[in-house]
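User: Hey, quick favor. My workstation is busy. Could you predict this chain's structure for me?
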Amino acid sequence: MRADTPIGRVEIGHGIAATAVEAALTRAEARRAILIAEPMTWEVAGKGIGATLAAAGWKVERILLPRGEDAKRLRVIEKTCRTLAKLHVDRAETLVAIGGGALTDAAGFAAATYLRGVPIVNVPTTLVGEIDAALGGKTAVDIPEGKNLVGVFRQPAAFIADTALLRTLPARERRAALGEVVKVGVLGDERLLELVEEHGEAFAAGSDEPIDSGAVAEMVERCAWAKVKVVCADEHDRGLRMTLNLGHTLGHAIEAAAGYKDLLHGEAIAYGLRGAFAISLAMGLTTRERSHRINALLDRLELGLESPGLDQDAVLERMASDKKHTMGKLNWILPTAAGVEIRQDVPPAAVEFGLIAALRFGGEHRPLDSTAEATAGATADATAEATEEATESSAGHS
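Assistant: No problem, here it is.
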């Protein structure tokens, strides 16, 4: 798949990384190839891309960032920008980011801020990067108070998803990424959910058959194209694009409470999805059948099964710093029977029920004990009461 879109060129294929990068640099009339990676992604992908470019006559520069979330620190951005300055990089040059979502986030932020913006081409090497993180123009770094709280919107000149690069992914990273794929399916893509139900377990276990058969390529294409359509309609996250944060309100808070250690992003999103469905059930927004299907799928993928061992208050504290607040109110993206809704009227009892599902039970569909059932009943009553009060207040001011 190749398409020029309002948010940059999108290319998805198998074994295309090196040739697509060279084509992107040629279109940009670049004078050299400046490749940004981290040590592991350099070995599995960057070195080969660099060698192909060098053989074709390109001068290749290499910049290495720390691995994973450690790349998303302001001190790393400063060091990266100082390296760009030492290389005398100017605004006419194009950077190439090769790595997972954290790497493309950090490199994208550096590209967006160095000289007030230089072009960048994203070559994600993980499934999370190919379906989400490297596409859409969100660049950011973390601070102790929360994930992605410092960043800018800056679209890449090109997004190159090569499914051949996914062969080298460890089983845990494959498995975790499917949490994000499930999220996109819950947004309204039934075919995507069917693909995960049919091929997800094999892919997560390390089998390359889903890659060879084209099933993973279809997952990537469906996720990427869904994101392109949403971002084109709402590039700066003021409405529709917020729906892509399904599972992220709790997920990001869990990541932050865990200190960005031990949990992969997709694993945290799986916990967040479980919590979001519990909240929706308590508020009467989705059906028990829909919730059961998604929780059962997460079970089969072995995502969110064990408690992350975090204190509930610590997670709540991190949610208070969530960037999805509007006028002091947190925007919750909650699943319905066939899609999602953006809600600001989630009562505290529903939030507590969601936290219990995410942090303790690990799955709504399991038999709930009497305490949980009582919590669900109290939540439904509180929701009805809050809705009634809001309606009366609205009538009183009309």
